[in-house]
Amino acid sequence: MRIFSVMGSPNKNGNTSALLQRYLKGVEEKHNDIEITSIYLQEMDIKGCRGCNACKSNKVENCIIKDDMNNLYNKLKGSDVMVLATPIYFFSMTAQMKAFLDRLYALDFNSFTGKKIVLLMTYGDTDEISSGAINLINIVEYMSNFTGIDFVQRYGVSTGLYTVSENSKALDEVYQLGKQLY
Fold this sequence. Notes:
By secondary structure, the protein is α/β, with parallel strands linked by helices. It has six helices and five strands, in the order βαβαβαβααβα. The chain has a five-stranded parallel sheet with strand order 2-1-3-4-5, sandwiched between helices. Strand 1 (2-7), helix 1 (15-30) and strand 2 (35-40) form a beta-alpha-beta unit. Helix 1 crosses helix 6.
């Protein structure tokens, strides 16, 4: 199994990172034949989609914008599972994650066939609705339906009372979720 892990937080060692690392540990311990490619969006140059539709013209492969996203398309195409990890900022994903997801439009949606997607989130409010995490869940569900990718797992945790690294319940739950990935 090949995992393409996308860290969308600008804080490389924060709550979302702790959640993602614990999830991936569960995946690794369950599957012997695992290959994980991890990217940290904050360190990448990914420009916003221009909406030019050149990617749909059959004249270019993927996207005409020359930035780090072009290096990620083949990694994504070669993966079985894409794991998205992001904190919720102002009722949705981070700007880094939004730019990344927008640029997936450049792919031939047939390249998503048979792939799975997992969503991991952290948020400061008490639950998925009041934090705005529900907005991102809906976006990933709509994107999955549109592209044909299978939305198989999601996990969100509030960081209002505890950091993720202090939250043994969340760490155990996300670890077990990782072990359940098939």
